[in-house]
Amino acid sequence: MCGIIGFIGRTDAAPILIEGLKRLEYRGYDSSGIATISSAGKIEIRKEIGKIVELEKIIKHNPINGKIGIAHTRWATHGGATVTNAHPHIGQTGKITIVHNGIIENYATLKKHLEKEGREFTTETDSEVIVHLIERYYFDTDNQDDGSPLTRLEKAVSDTVKMLEGTFGIAVLCDEVPDTIIGARKGSPLVIGIGKDSMFIASDINAFVTYTKQVIYLDDNEIVTINRDTYQTKNFERAPVSKDIEEISWDVDEIGRAGYDHFMLKEICEQPDSVRNAFIGRLLYEQATAKLGGLKLSNKDILNIDRILITACGTALHAGMVGKYIIEQLAGIPVEVDFASEFRYRNPIIRPNTLVLAISQSGETADTLAALREAKQKGATVMGICNVVGSTIARECDGGVYVHAGPEIGVASTKAFTSQVTVMILLAIYFGRVRGLSRDIANKLMKEIEKLPGAIHAILDSKEKIKKVAVKYAGTKHAFFMGRNDQYPVALEGALKLKEISYIDANGYPAAEMKHGPIALIDEEHLTVALAPDSPLLEKMIANIQEIRARNGKIVTVTDTKNQMIEKLSDDVIKIPKVHPALKPILMALPMQLFAYYVAVAMECDVDQPRNLAKSVTVE
Ligand code: M6R
User: Fold this and answer.
1) Residue 584: active-site member
2) What is the set of domains in the chain, with CATH numbers?
3) Do residues 308 and 335 make contact, with C-beta atoms less than 8 angstroms apart?
4) pLDDT digits (tens, 9 = 90+) for 171-225
5) What does the alpha-carbon distance between residue 547 and residue 569 come to, in Å, rounded to a whole number?
6) Which of 239, 373, 422, 599 is the most exposed, fewest CB within 10 Å of its CB?
7) Through-space distance between the first and last CA atoms of the chain, rounded to whole angstroms
8) Measured in angstroms, how far is the CA atom of residue 347 from the centroid of ligand 1?
9) 316 C-alpha to ligand 1 centroid (Å)
């Protein structure tokens, strides 16, 4: 999705803004642009479609100076990916420019009014109404006596944001106030970075983390005015709001590629550590339970839960689906899992004892955020399972658990999934213990959890073997992933990984569903990846594999057991170590990720920034 970075300091803004844009590339975009107030006091803008390097070429050819600027990566929603539609947008006086993340839902009505007043629009975007509105209020004669240009600009921004319906994070420059950036937020994240003799504003900490770790998170309905060494936060009514400065704990190294070809591979390989970080310090053998203090639930609260509703999108949803099996099994609480985008619009039944869990790596996904707000409004207690500390979802929930996977940059989510599932298992132990799970079962499972990093290492050590299998299937047109029970969500996740980075048409199914329709597609060209770990359902899985083989389909089986039938029926077998049954979804996810990764690399796809996708989906 779109990204924003703004800078004000003592050095040239352009190189810092370009570096910031590059750090936002992972979010997905199709054009970019930059605006500064030049040393001559005028707004200068450069924009280009394609990658940031294309924008750099434009700037090299036609340099842009100034010690203050805003920049943007655009992921097209309203209007095509063109230079004109790229941000920053400038008003018709050429004195005010803005960048915007989000969607202005009432833009058509606003545009009509503004056009009637004689304003000319040059882009097809929803965002352009923002700059016209600010300009209109700034130059409004009623606003002229209202103090300095700064006060007028602040008032113009506040009057504008009150007109907007939808979501926005904006940054505004005005050449009559050349030492100031104004930001405003509603539903789309904005964070301020306090540097040495400099200030930053961005949609995401990654954009400026090399310069400062001192941050202030803007909340919805807040405006910030930043100068080189001060900032002021206010609400939309322009009443001061006091904010805490927080220190972020990420290392700069953590967001580099560290010698790997892609962020995705780096993040896959980080899983021994990221999974360990999800459980470390949380296994209490004395009490035979998991410590999840951030949930802020008493034993009485846990005993009273009569239903859990998990809501999320994409990979996080699949982690929630795995969670359903383990929570129902260990804690005996009925669990429903729902797409966040559907949850919001289906009038979900929330009773006083319903616990809602919102799972999100970024903590900024618009649909998940909307679902949690809907649940809160209906009276539910809502807990967040998030990776990004201080993200909107994390802050809006009643409590929650951080998965501590570290920054995930690759658009295809990998380490976040295994960390989310690990937390689901801890949650099941914690709730289970309060509701009658034996000490013995809990302690045994916790000991097994500690073995996970070693088992993950073993899979990573065999990645060359997985690569050999994967490259054989590069160019496959269609693939199924099938699994049973808690392997079904892993099959969905395997299919999602493959389709999003290699563009192969891939779908996940519960294995038994194949004969209710999908099997019609099997022929000698069709690939099926069978998830067949040792379990009471293994024989049934083998029967499903046989059904595919009988129709000449190609089969790759992933298993942790030696089984002659599997060897005989499969074209390729990927072996993984044996672990406790409850932990198998975590281990089985690894070959899915590596398989998708190596297929995509063999097909020369852009693994970290697949087409049409964004890392953080901050629009509905
Ligand atoms: O940040 P979130 O976990 O809320 O993101 C949810 C999905 O957008 C995300 O998992 C998406 O499906 C990934 N591209 C999957 O790899």
Assistant:
1) no
2) 3-248 (3.60.20.10), 256-450 (3.40.50.10490), 461-604 (3.40.50.10490)
3) yes
4) 999 999 999 999 999 988 899 999 999 999 999 888 999 999 999 999 999 999 9
5) 10
6) 239
7) 11
8) 24
9) 6
